[in-house]
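Recall the central idea of this unit: under ordinary conditions, the amino acid sequence of a chain determines the structure it adopts. In this exercise we apply that idea directly, starting from the sequence alone.
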Amino acid sequence: MCSITVEPNQSVSPVYAILDIETTGMERKKDRIIQIGVVRVDNNVVTPWMAYVNPCTPRGEQRGAFRVHKISPDVLQGKPTFAEVAPKLCKFLENVEYIAGYNCISDWSFLMAEFDKLQGNEENKALMKKIKWIDLLRLGIKSFPGLGNYRSQTLLDKFSIRTKKAQSFHYQSSFKTEDQQESEEFTLFELGEINWEQAHHDAVCDSFSAHALLKKLLEKNGYADIADLVSNFPQCCIDTELFRILEVKWKERKTSNEELQPLAARAEKFYGTMPSLRGKTLEELSKEKIEAALFSGFERDERVCLIYRAAVLNKVAESQKRKADSPDESTNPKESKTE
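Accordingly, the structure predicted from this sequence is:
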């Protein structure tokens, strides 16, 4: 079983899920999902679900990621494709209002890229668009604005959260369909890594860890549950529609300041996820500092670059307006006075 050495916390509602994925790499445009792990919480009942996914890519393209998650291409070759997994995933998530994850824009982006590759499947795509995504990275920055880094492990260490895999590790996932209950069991032995001791980079165990982190962060900030979190700290929610809009603009090369200006207010709200800015407000930073930070880590995502470009537009406009409204010190007031 998957155990977490963290004190139990009060239940949270409404129905929500913690989701994590493993992939063949970090580039959403070419890499594919190979494992999806979900922990659904409904009325304090915690139910895990997991699927391995055949990425349908050459073995050589999976070699680098294999060193991280140890999921063998040989194992994945016999697994279902994402097209086959997607209906089961959506069935498991059909009553879920929120999905939470750490830097979940990455998980969301990979999932949407996979769904976009599917022909039809509009009902499932609509379901995924309806679910709100909560980023624990944002909540982590709010909770600890002065940390040296915002890796997920750093936050887990703050609360002494540990997830371990026993040698006999296995878990069962199940969900009910209209006429029957489907049930699957998974075990580490399937991966050929019997001696694993650490659970990091297993999608389900990472989801359990993230759930423990969520509960601790809610407690630290005095939020009763996820609904209370969203009500009092709406910045925790990812504006996924903004990402879709900017992806289209990037493809159509409509990235001028004039094109981005209507999105400036929405972009400012997203800004707080930037870990290199240590949780400061936009007004505390110069345009140059923001732009300098764009080229580190996950901010290389062109959509995120466009968001920060849009986010500073109002700041620049306000600065120019203040400059225009202030008297010109180089002009002698007596000389400018009309007779």
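The radius of gyration is 23 Å.
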